[in-house]
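Re: 2'-deoxyguanosine-5'-monophosphate structure - here you go.
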Amino acid sequence: MPDCIFCKIAGREINAKFVYETDELAAFQDLNPQAPTHILIITKKHITRLSDCSQEDAPLLGKIQYAAKEIADKAGIAEGFRLVTNNGRKAGQSVDHLHYHLLGGRKMNWPPG
Ligand code: DGP
């Protein structure tokens, strides 16, 4: 998608601090961190939000979970982290490209608000 920030990051047109990459996924540090560790995991394929994925995307969605585990291990937060996607404006989504926030390094409260 030409005007998508995260497509541009995945295509290395915009700089980001990458921590993980495969053919299908990329992960980089959030510009506005909400925790000592705050990493965004994105699909390289442009999917606007989780609600817009199709059944054929299910294996890709599973790979995001495994990537989160690997990144959390490497970041030293395996004992306590949160993986969350904001789906739609009402849930706080501001960038219209599927992404998961991997947060850790501090106590996470519940409910999240
Ligand atoms: P959300 O509100 O769930 O759509 O999260 C979007 C996140 O993306 C937010 O935490 C800030 C981050 N973000 C926005 N623009 C950029 C950018 O250009 N670079 C990086 N690294 N993060 C960005």
